[in-house]
Amino acid sequence: MSSPAIALLLTGHELMTGDTVDSNSALIARHLLSQGILVAEKCTVGDDPEALRTAITRLSQDHRAIIINGGLGPTDDDLTASIVADLCAAPLVEHPKARAHVEAWCERRRIRANPANMKQAWLPTGATLIDNPVGSAVGFALTLNNCLLLTTPGVPSELAAMLPAVADSLTATLGGAPAYIRRVQTFGVGESTIQQWAKELGDQWPTTVNLGFRAGMPQLELKLTVAHAHEVPDQTRAYELLEAKFGDHILGEGETQLAQVVQDALRRQRKTLTTAESCTGGLIASMITREPGSSTVFGTGFVTYANEAKQSLLAVSHQVLEESGAVSEAVVRQMVLGALDQSGADIGVAVSGIAGPDGGTEDKPVGTVWLAWGTREDLRAHCAQIPGSRTLFQQLVAAVALDLIRRHLLGLPALPHYFTRQAQ
Amino acid sequence: MSSPAIALLLTGHELMTGDTVDSNSALIARHLLSQGILVAEKCTVGDDPEALRTAITRLSQDHRAIIINGGLGPTDDDLTASIVADLCAAPLVEHPKARAHVEAWCERRRIRANPANMKQAWLPTGATLIDNPVGSAVGFALTLNNCLLLTTPGVPSELAAMLPAVADSLTATLGGAPAYIRRVQTFGVGESTIQQWAKELGDQWPTTVNLGFRAGMPQLELKLTVAHAHEVPDQTRAYELLEAKFGDHILGEGETQLAQVVQDALRRQRKTLTTAESCTGGLIASMITREPGSSTVFGTGFVTYANEAKQSLLAVSHQVLEESGAVSEAVVRQMVLGALDQSGADIGVAVSGIAGPDGGTEDKPVGTVWLAWGTREDLRAHCAQIPGSRTLFQQLVAAVALDLIRRHLLGLPALPHYFTRQAQ
After folding, report:
1. Alpha carbon distance A400, A382 (integer Å)
2. Does residue A174 register a pLDDT over 90?
3. Cβ B289–A394 below 8 Å, yes or no?
4. pLDDT for A214
5. Mutate to test the interface with B, among A8, A11, A19 (most CBs of B within 10 A)
6. Which residues of B touch A73 (CB under 8 A)?
7. How far apart are CA A65 and CA A39, in angstroms?
8. How far is A379 from chain B (nearest CA, A)?
9. Which helix (H) or strand (E) holds B372?
10. What mean pLDDT comes out for the span B161-166?
11. Cβ(B162)–Cβ(B131) under 8 Å?
């Protein structure tokens, strides 16, 4: 690719001690790559003035632009602005727009700005402000040795909100051509399964289309990339092949989230959902309500962690609990029916399983989960084994629960690949 | 600190595109720091011969040792060995021990070694092998410009297994002494507030103790570090100063999590908790149940996102909802009482707020939340402004709810700094 290349400089003591895993650089690199800009080198140093000075000087000689991430916070070990000011011979001055930004930020929090807050309004003379829509620290742009310096805060949510403006600054200076990337969000089918399938396709898969993967949790993102505009029809063909084979596992494109798809389907069908959760302890409900607009499709959720709660809130019968145990088909079926009764919702999902680390038996080891989902008239149940840590188990079970609802709503095959594969 | 410092060089195309988040460098840094070795600089480049050559040359001039991670695999874009061989004028030769290692590895997998596998046995002349107890790629040590080069594979599990040997090589060459780090988990007081306080303390704070921060979500970790064993009493004194000032914000040491502290306190007091959540949609319950052992202290949670659910499940009165609105003191108080009634739990917490992006009014803007917590006899309520994105709002409100319960259980000041600061 003939895309322009830039450098990243990450700063922070916590990155050098290993206390923090750096996810910011991946966030930046992905965003820039979608704009046709490559990261050629990443350099990371601690909050040490000499190391920062040396790194900025060297990178500015080797690259046409540097994104500096971190060191914009309110405290004394946040050195970025003062060191850039030094190197560029552009003394720190209080920047009126930055001052207004910090004051508004404090105002929204109903706190009085202290000196540490106000430090963030001091930027090198002549710096151009990069707005931070989320946090108190603004970024700024300045030139050193004919190299564009762009500073960004280390807080991931703030960085993410500023990336579009950063990319605009870069493409304005460097040029850049978008690569043609089509991102497809999937759930419930593994990277190795898809790769094996693509291999078996052989010639049918267009050679111009690169198939890439990014494992999210719980989703898997596929990326179909072509280098040139005239190859976009190949990309479409590749997508169609993918859809023909794994269509029921495709959630959507771009950033589409599982819970969003469920919400949208519910809204289109004017239906409401309720949840009855044992082993996931509220996680399914919280995934649904994390997405804006959930109040139109979700009103009530039950966290019935204890058997008594299953009985008193959801009218699960004592006898069934005694005979079948809490992790059983009979119990999850009663849980859904009870939740539908109590909430008046149209569709329900219930889960009961053994998250571990304790509580497993030979019959029902840690990782066993029963799920039931659907309506009073069309209620299904399934048992699965989902190994992994307690947290991973809860995340996967919650995602599976949402996926089963999605399949129910969209009339897709009821059981996904990850279940039918276990059943084989 | 007088600890020796080294450089890390990470290589791999996937690190430059952002497809992979680099967790290896944190793994290496943490392990080495426990041996008293600091990472002074991290540099990351793609699988590009020229970039690798430049980076190794430069780092070898600036540092006494470099750990190179990645590029030892069987494929053609794994370049580390051949480039180090070039730079050190030490041509690749088949290393008998490395050959035996690869053959044994294939044997265990019952596969025949192919040329790609055998490539991994070719190391620079004179290199000392670093054993890989897990994978096929061995590492090696060699010297360039009086700088020790240590190569390691990119697969995290293999890297982890090799780190003790890598650290031994380094300490043998550089010396090194363990640092004395005391990690303190806090919630509800900001980095800038603590730093301001430490500054005001002046001479009282022992100069031998370095105060570091790591912003987690929602916790803030403080690190009190001293370089030598005889300074540990200073560290204790610093901790006591911290405790005297911010004791009610300290959750514990090491990896202590807020939900864990709440669980432990409930268990010690043989009490149970219930939750009644509107705007957090199940997140409080899921934070509690994420920690193992939650079933002894938490049996029932209510997700009453809709007003109808607040009425039918928690007996919130229609009149109060009409008069005060869902986000009000009267409603959260009724929510706790209803949840206590329905669940039979000893202590309850309820939240109702405006998570946004829509639903705010001039009176109650997005970010407004009412919380109520305690027992039937000792019930408190408070209103706060918690701005930020929807997700951030939910995470902070859930954490605040847990913190209020913690304060109630432990007899700490009822309102934390983040509330009293707003009230000023």
Report:
1. 11
2. no
3. yes
4. 76
5. A19
6. 191-192
7. 10
8. 23
9. strand B368-374
10. 92
11. yes
**Average pLDDT of every residue of chain B:** 91
Q: Which residues, 6+ apart, have CB-to-CB distance to B113 below 8 Å?
A: B102, B103, B106
Chain A CB contacts of B56 below 8 Å = none
Name the residue type at position B2. S
Q: Where are the alpha helices (DSSP H) in B109-145?
A: 115-119
- Taking alpha carbons only, the member of B274, B269, B249 closest to residue B190 is B249
Whole-Å CA distances, A363 to A203, A325, B44, B308: 47, 11, 49, 41
Q: Of A199, A204, A223, A203, whose CA–CA distance to A213 is shortest?
A: A223
A44 and B41 within 8 Å at the Cβ level: the answer is yes
Answer yes or no: are the C-beta atoms of B81 and B138 closer than 8 Å. Answer: no
Residues 6+ apart with CB under 8 A from B190: B220, B418
Least confident piece of the model among A19-33, A214-228, A335-349, B346-360: A214-228
Q: Given pLDDT bands bounded at 50, 70 and 90, which one contains residue B287?
A: very high
pTM: 0.75
What is the spatial distance between Cα B30 and Cα A297, in angstroms, rounded to a whole number? 46
Interface with B, mutate which of A43, A305, A349, A358 (most B CBs under 10 A)? A305
Pairing type for strands B298-304 and B273-277 reads parallel
> Does the predicted interface ipTM exceed a cut of 0.85?
no
> Is some CB atom of chain B closer than 8 A to the CB atom of A199?
no
CB nearest A357 (choices: B29, B40, B292): B292
Separation in Å, CA B412 to CA A256, B225, B250, B404, B406:
43, 28, 11, 9, 8
Window 205-234 of A, Cβ < 8 Å to B: 212-214
> What domains can be seen in chain A, in order of their start residue?
5-174 (3.40.980.10), 180-253 (3.30.70.2860), 258-423 (3.90.950.20)
- Could you say which of B44, B277, B280 has the minimum Cβ distance to residue A42? B44
pLDDT interval class at B176 (50, 70, 90): low
A267, β-bridge pairs: none
Q: Output the pLDDT for position A378.
A: 96
Question: Is the CB of A22 less than 8 angstroms away from the CB of B17?
Answer: no
Residue A127 C-alpha, separation from nearest chain B C-alpha, in angstroms:
25
3-state secondary structure of A352: strand
Cα A78 to Cα B279: distance, rounded to the nearest angstrom: 35
Helix/strand/coil for A389:
coil
Using pLDDT thresholds of 50, 70 and 90, give the confidence band for residue B240.
very high
Q: Is the pLDDT of residue B4 over 80?
A: no
Beta carbons of A253 and A196 less than 8 angstroms apart: no
Name beta bridge partners: A34. Answer: none
Cβ neighbors of B398 (< 8 A, separation 6 or more) are B280, B283, B284, B287, B351
Percentage of the residues of chain A whose pLDDT score is greater than 70: 97
**Bridge partners, residue B352, by sequence:** B370
